[in-house]
Amino acid sequence: MNASKFARRGFTTSLILSLGWIATPGIGHAQVMLSPAFNQPKVDAEVSEPIRSLTLHPQGQPDPVLRYRLWPAPEKRRYRATMTAVNRALLLVGQVPTSDKQRFLDHYDTWSAASFDQFPVADAKADVLPFETAIAVLRSGENWMDTHYDLGIEEMSMQEKLGTLLPEFQETRDLARLLCVRARVAAAEKRWDDAIADLRLGFRLSEVAGHSTNTLLGRLIGSAISEVLMDATETMIQQPDCPNLYWALAGLPIDHLTEIGEAIEQESTLGMHIGSVAGLQKLPAEVIGHEESLERLRKISNAFSSSLSSMYRSAGDSTWNQMTTGFQITMMVQPSRELLAQNPDWKDRLSELSDAEVVLRASDFELSRIRDRWLAWSLLPKPVWQDCEEQRNQAMHVTGAPVTLGGKLARVILPDVQRAIEVGLDIRQTHHRLVTLEAIRMHADQFGVLPETITNLSPVPAWPDPVSRQPFQYAKKSATVATLARAAGSRNRDDITLEINLEPNQ
Predict the structure, then answer these.
(1) How big is the chain by its Cα radius of gyration, in Å?
(2) Does position 401 have pLDDT exceeding 80, yes or no?
(3) What's the whole-model pTM score?
(4) Which member of 77, 78, 124, 468 lies 3.0 to 4.6 Å from 487 by CB, making a disulfide possible if both were Cys?
(5) Quick one: average pLDDT of 409-422?
(6) Reduced 3-state DSSP string for 409-461
(7) Would you call 77 helix, strand, or coil by DSSP?
(8) Contact 179, 202 (CB under 8 A)
(9) Which of 6, 40, 29 lies closest to 415 in space, CA to CA?
(10) Domain-wise residue ranges, the chain
(11) pLDDT in tens, 472-502
């Protein structure tokens, strides 16, 4: 299935694309802006703990220690709009012949997976050559730190938000692919400054994709770009003579790159916006009567079905239409009365309300209650959020059968924020492990052997595992062999445990 077909499948698929972006066909396909549904089943990462081997070579810290950077140095940063350079680069990519684009995409997986001793440097270099001008223009904005991309989202109607396409996001992933291959070519040729420069530009690109708009989709694409760049970094540090990137990695604002709080807040407004189309958020304190209530219920139904029907059901599926018939709304009356009896503003005034107004006001109450609970629990700091998984799940998931139109709306609209947060946590874990590997390389350079433990490294400390909030699990087997294990995260990985093989530099 090609990417254009994926895009037509709507929001859920857009988010899946952002997580599985390496396998997605690339250059030139649109991306839907907002992605409310994100209900992938959580995989059991405890099933197995595969071991993957990697080779490290002793390498001390550079002199000066910040000679290499994966983020622009403070003195080079300028407050300019970086999307200007990104969009110009994307236009230039669009001018590359289709045959050249397809050749690069066809070879990308091969170039990314090949070990350095089997890496076809000349072929890979030829594949990226047609994009050199675009990369040069992108690099002109590397130090431009203003990532804001004003699309006027706040002023858009609900229908406009849902229909907005962001082809820029899809294209930034292609630019990141190009930068990863370029970095591998440079590393294979021992051009370390060039390789690190390409990684640095890629990490800036991940910020642009993730933070140019406050959308959950953008954050996830930015995180995916960071993840593939860290995979490229891990491959690079295994090469003899690769500079030690401990301080370069330490300088990456990884918490910022994986932050999703503002995007969660923005996503939460979508459901409230749909409700406000029908006036749910503007219901007066006084009774409005049967006819007015019916009219507002119709508006809720029309606003929801006209905007979301093509994305959440096939043309022949009339589930939503059936649900909003007069009969179905009648079935909501008694549960709505029971729900509204919990509302402090209306529990003593239920006798004043018609059946239609009971359903309307209960819809308002249930939508607000679910949305506020979902949003409130997403605000917990990361350590607390990790410690209260059971309570969090109960609070943030729409359990049972919602009894009103507002509750059914919330079930469809609100994204699975838990999955999004877990993706960011997993990427921070990968980053901290990379820093720890570089600390081990420094220690080996100083003492000639692997450390006994990673709690007493010299000259720099290891970083903790963000998932367990404990040191990574380290076991030394010999002077040159050890294992380093991460805590199982939210996804099955082939590298829960790394076997480190220390080899001397030639």
Answers:
(1) 26
(2) no
(3) 0.80
(4) 468
(5) 70
(6) HHHHHCCCHHHHHHHHHHHHHHHHHHHHHHHHHHHHHHHCCCCCCCCCCCCCC
(7) coil
(8) yes
(9) 40
(10) 38-59+68-142+152-264+433-502, 279-415
(11) 999 999 999 999 999 986 666 667 899 999 9
